[in-house]
Amino acid sequence: MPYFNEYNEPNTIQAHGIVVLEKKHQAIKALKRKHKPSVHGHKLWHSSFLLMDYLNFHPLPNKASLMEVGCGWGTTSIFCAKRFAAKATGVDLDPNVFPYLHTLAEFNQVTINTEQAPLEKLSKAKLANHHTVLGTDICFWDELVNKVYNLIRRSLQAGVTQVVLADPGRSTFHQLVARCSKKYSTECHPWYTQDPEFISGYVLCVSAR
To answer: Which residues contact residue 144 at a Cβ distance below 8 angstroms, ignoring those fewer than 6 apart?
Structure first.
């Protein structure tokens, strides 16, 4: 397991209690020589920090089971594993993101389960064992609005307590909010964080009525 010295480890960021590796970090450089993520999995996305901040104010139950969809490098799962001792599973369409996720998890001394799957293949049976479904920056194309909405529908039908998504405020995200509000208990909060820098956007929380 990599050793992290919080005082002199170069090319790292500390935010919301976790360590994030920048693209110039030697571990990330080594990964990029072997693994080439697609589907926008080539970097960290800032909405994950929004969701971490939101969860600091709206914490998960201790040791809750969660699924992070479109997890990329898995920073939100890692945060939840450290902050709430959550049993986290990161799901992504692209398996090439998982080496990055596991490397970050090792730096943070947590373990994250992973599964390769598109959103539409996440069945009620797979969703049923989780308290919360999380996602950041997953509704960025028009065709994703239906896919994400249907994921929310299946999640709530399967007994998931809440689906919580963060986004910088794309028009597609607001279309999703409007659809959810017609059928489910829906809260959409403007949100910002100053850790690790000023980042603003929205957090959507959907639960069954």
So the answer is: 119, 138, 172
- Report d(CA 135, CA 67) in Å as an integer: 9
In this structure, what token pair is assigned to residue 76? Answer: 């939100």
CA–CA gap between residue 147 and residue 143 (Å, rounded): 7
| Measured distance CA(126)–CA(116) in Å, rounded | 13
CA distance 155 to 122: 9
SS3 134: strand
pTM over 0.90? The answer is: yes
Task: State CA 13 to chain mean position distance.
Answer: 18
The CA-to-CA distance between both ends of the chain, in Å, stands at 44
Report the chain (209 residues): mean pLDDT per 10 consecutive residues.
Answer: 53 93 87 77 80 98 98 96 98 95 96 97 96 96 96 98 98 98 97 97 94
CB 128 within 8 A of CB 158: yes
Q: Are 115 and 130 in contact (CB under 8 A)?
A: no
Q: What pLDDT is stored for residue 86 in this prediction?
A: 98
Answer for the pair 64, 206: CB distance below 8 angstroms, yes or no.
no
